[in-house]
TrEMBL record:
Protein name in the entry: TECT2 protein
GO CC annotations on file: MKS complex
Superkingdom of this protein's organism: Eukaryota
InterPro entries for this protein: TCTN1-3 (IPR040354), TCTN1-3_dom (IPR011677), TCTN1-3_N (IPR057724)
Keyword field contains Cell membrane: no
Gene Ontology biological process terms, A to Z: cilium assembly; protein localization to ciliary transition zone; smoothened signaling pathway
Gene: Tctn2
């Protein structure tokens, strides 16, 4: 034991059992244990024995009765000098004169040297880690006192170090903060030293060590700022220059203004920064156990001019919880724990140029109970403030990424149209699939599964699939801009429809095979940046094309062919293609002729034949490349001369 108290257990019935403790039971001359004596008592020297009886187990405790605290001035009942208690104890359990059990204890306890005085308030000077280790004695944990087994502790006297000199801490914790490294020539730490080691080893003193980073004194790089806490882009005498599109919004505490958003994996991230002029509408699933409060609404926001504006918050109560609670477990009313939480938050940022003028927040609160799953909704909307009328609001006329594409049916009395893709649910069947709008700038791919009978007529199947695909596009025109007017036909582009290809191939009466099924709907939207409004790019749709891709449907026979239904997946894809606002200038005749010598368009580049002789070649010094080039030219000239017939005649003469 190394503490003043130790516990053990006696198994069995302790009724009529006498427990005793004996101090130093070994014979001083022979070193053997003395014969057990059941006539002992529960106290021996400075040791005391306590027994707590039980039904089938009794707790046996051995404790040291004297104190090991070091003496302070004018104190008694303490240790005047550091000491160590080393004694041998024997605990006996006897019934009469018969020994039932015995326990041998080897006690080695050091004096408690904990510092209880006043600590100096002088500041600790931390040395430069590039020249000295930060902690030269890591095991020195107690200020003003000696730490046991810490041989590098300067508070330990020579007499006290003799008590544990053979069991000092080793390694870095014991004070060896600058050990010899394997690459050192005088190091013998490697078990196997190769023959070439003396030629490549490092001959240096231990002051020049890789543990402190002395080997390279290069330029230091500034550490990167944490991702969600950045300093303001200001300097003394220079105000904040305002926001640009995509810049994170900054709070008064120099941190990002965050609202939960969806990540690329589809999960919600609570600490996602809000980007300037980027609106979004997300839904996040949570329950009472994992619910976390977001950023407080009393946080002030940097307007963009180094001024701070307060959020205008309006709290409302949820009346219909069914729109937000998607799943509920049947729990007894007495066991349900409920809490008032946030169901939805709607942020409206009023902006002008590069600054934020106003922030309006609407918070919907409701009660969430244990066992329920809540669908939280978070929306952020940026509204532009008209400079001519401070109270009139209008949205950006162009499309913004993530906003729905406007569609219209101009041939009907009600011009309102829709352009959607599927959002499957459950088993992914088309019968239960819902729709979601096509978002501008977001390439999408979705689909559903159609159940087809083995005796399905091919013509009926083609018509059924085409009908389901056409149900996604309830429109004849697409708005060029986000604020296209239904009364102005020039604000819309007509949808170009390419009918599915049909080869009229007959199946010869075979069942379960249908060719030319238009199972894939392809929507291509061509857009361009045609200008800017208050520094924000104005994106406009130029054309929309819809085409179909056909497949060969064949009935897939299941196990034993007992099922007469087969599955046909039908898909819809949306692709956004950006083109320049103005067509590129036509290629001139000179450019057509020059293409033959253009190194970027041809594999053979004749202008680079003498590239090593030019100043652009940096593989070696220019003087060396010039000398090698002249020598190569001399060899070519010499070969040309010697291969000439008149040279052989002259040589023969």
């Amino acid at each position: 034991m190394s503490a003043p108290r130790v516990n053990s257990f006696f198994l069995g019935n302790s009724s009529g059992v006498n427990f005793s403790i004996i101090l130093s039971p070994r014979d001083a001359e022979t070193g053997k244990l003395q014969p057990a004596n059941c006539s002992g008592s529960k106290r021996a020297g400075d040791w005391n024995l306590d027994v707590t009886p039980g039904v089938s187990t009794s707790k046996v405790s051995v404790s040291l009765t004297r104190t090991l605290e070091l003496c302070l001035p004018n104190a008694t009942e303490c240790c005047p000098s550091p000491l160590r208690v080393v004694e041998t104890l024997q605990v006996l359990a006897c019934r009469g004169s018969v020994v039932l059990a015995q326990l041998l204890i080897q006690a080695e306890i050091f004096a408690n040297s904990s510092f209880t005085g006043n600590v100096s308030e002088n500041a600790t000077i931390i040395p430069n880690q590039a020249f000295k280790p930060l902690g030269s004695c890591p095991c020195d944990l107690t200020a003003g006192a000696c730490d046991v087994r810490c041989c590098c502790d300067l508070e330990c006297t020579a007499d006290l170090q003799q008590l544990f000199s053979g069991s000092c801490f080793t390694g870095v914790f014991g004070g060896d903060v600058n050990p010899p490294y394997d690459q050192l020539c005088t190091s013998q730490s490697m078990e196997y030293t190769p023959e070439w080691f003396p030629f490549l080893c490092v001959q240096s003193s231990l002051d020049n060590t890789p543990f402190l980073g002395y080997f390279y004194h290069g330029s230091t790089s500034t550490p990167k700022v944490p991702s969600f806490k950045i300093p303001l882009q200001t300097s003394p005498g220079k105000p904040f220059t305002g926001y640009r599109e995509g810049d994170p919004i900054i709070t008064e505490e120099d941190e990002y203004f965050t609202v939960p958003q969806q990540s690329l994996a589809g999960q919600c991230t609570g600490n996602a920064p809000v980007a300037y002029l980027h609106s979004f509408d997300v839904k996040c699933l949570t329950n009472l156990e994992s619910y976390k409060e977001g950023l407080p609404h009393d946080v002030r926001i940097n307007s963009g001019t180094a001024d701070f504006i307060q959020q205008n918050v309006v709290y409302r109560a949820i009346t219909d919880r069914g729109k937000f609670i998607t799943e509920s477990e049947n729990l007894l009313a007495a066991e349900v724990l409920c809490q008032n939480v946030t169901f939805a938050e709607h942020y409206k940022f009023i902006w002008k140029d590069k600054n934020i003028e106003q922030v309006n927040v609407t918070v919907f609160l409701g009660s969430l109970c244990d066992g329920e799953i809540l669908t939280q909704r978070f929306t952020v909307e940026f509204l532009s403030l008209n400079s001519t009328n401070g109270e009139e609001l209008f949205e950006h006329p162009g499309y913004q990424v993530g906003k729905p594409v406007r569609a219209a049916n101009l041939n009907a009395s009600d011009p309102l149209g829709s352009l959607n893709i599927w959002q499957p649910a459950g088993r992914g069947l088309c019968a239960s699939a819902t729709y979601r709008p096509v978002l501008f700038g977001v390439d999408s791919y979705s689909g559903c599964i159609l159940e087809v009978d083995i005796n399905e007529d091919c013509s009926f199947l083609r018509g059924n699939v085409t009908e389901k695909l056409n149900a996604l596009i309830q429109a004849t025109h697409i708005g060029k801009r986000d604020n296209s007017s239904y009364s102005d036909l020039n604000d819309w582009v007509e949808i170009i429809r390419l009918d599915p290809f049909s080869s009229n191939v007959s199946t010869g009466g075979l069942k379960g095979i249908c060719p030319d099924i238009p199972a894939n709907l392809n929507i291509r939207i061509i857009f361009s940046k045609v200008g800017a409004v208050q520094g924000i790019p104005l994106q406009q749709i130029l054309a929309v094309q819809i085409s179909y891709s056909t497949v060969l449907w064949q009935f897939q026979c299941g196990l034993g062919c007992k099922n007469t239904l087969s599955l046909l997946p039908i898909t819809a894809s949306v692709q956004f293609i950006e083109v320049p606002a103005q067509p590129p200038p036509p290629v001139t005749r000179y450019q057509k002729l020059y293409e033959e010598f253009d190194c970027n368009r041809n594999e053979v580049c004749w202008p680079q034949l003498l590239y090593p002789l030019t100043r652009f070649y940096t593989g070696e010094p220019y003087s060396q490349s010039l000398a090698k080039g002249l020598f190569l030219a001399f060899l070519v000239l010499l070969a040309a001369i010697t291969s000439n017939p008149w040279f052989s005649k002259l040589w023969n003469r």
